[in-house]
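Sat 14:20. Reprocessing the chain from the morning session after the first attempt stalled halfway. Input below, unchanged.
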Amino acid sequence: MTTLFLGLEQGLMRVELNGDARAHWAMKDVSAFSVAIDPQEPEYVICTTLGQGVFRSEDGGRSFEPGGDGVTFPSVWASSISSTERTSAGGVVYVGTLPSAMFRSEDGGRTFRELESFRALPSLPEASFPAAPRTSLVHMIATSFNRERTVFAGIELGGIMRSSDGGETWQETAGGLDCHQLLAHPMAPDRVYESDGGGFCESLDNGETWTVDYEGIPEHLSYFYDMAVDPGDPDTIVISVGPNQYQAHGINPYAYYEGAFDRSSVLPNTYSTLFRRCGGIWTEMRNGLPAAEGHSQGRFATALGDDTGHVYYVTIPGDVYRTTDGGDSWSAVDVTFPPDADGRMVHCARAVNG
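Finished this time. Tokens:
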């Protein structure tokens, strides 16, 4: 059975994709922004929130309790649980915040300590989140599947930072990027994938060098956001693309730059679409998906170890689509949401098998 977690503005939703695919609230009244699932012990789940810190689960996300003691900022945007750094409480947990800071937990997310050298990075004072220009944030974290103490942190807007010693020291590996997603893949040692506000790039050597590639995607579609890699094929990548951040997200640009994030007046020309890179070539994916016009960028989810070709895409407001052929065709998953889940603003989607 596949379980899908949806981080929503009003809480965390847990969807068991069995016969009836019925959604249940795992938490309510929190702005759930990221979910991390232990790759080796999936009963351990971390959920981070915008404004209410960190929550942890030991029953596969059926229930949560507060965690995060020691995380000194309440807006926690990013999380990851290591598959290679292990303790008796599961994988080492990393979380990142607004303002940009990194924290590490060795007891399953109960307590954290700040990785202080992160805030000493020379380039960090120059980083700036466009909607809050006096600060920046850690938007994504990826932990290596083959190097025990290697972790990557993507700063919006600032670049990609890497630690090879469990977060004790850091270095900038790619500067100036508006990082939106960072991924590693268990079948591709030392490969790291990144999507950002200006394109897609990847590293094949553990972040030493990076290659930009969006050849074949039309020039007017220049804003890249969420991304997934086929769980059974590290060479197949799917990504969401829009003309710019306003149309892609359906955000009023004036409210955006005032930091209000007002979604009450959705732009009339909201537009986003999906592209796939397979065989080194980017092609648009539309078979079975809703129209690009009028839809803002959704979120992807894959389950670790799932069959080749299996990817989920969750639109805003929360319609679930699935492909089993790597994006050639998509079909809607008939999920039953509770009545109080209307107006679903989806921040993240994560999937797990078992």
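The mean pLDDT is 92.
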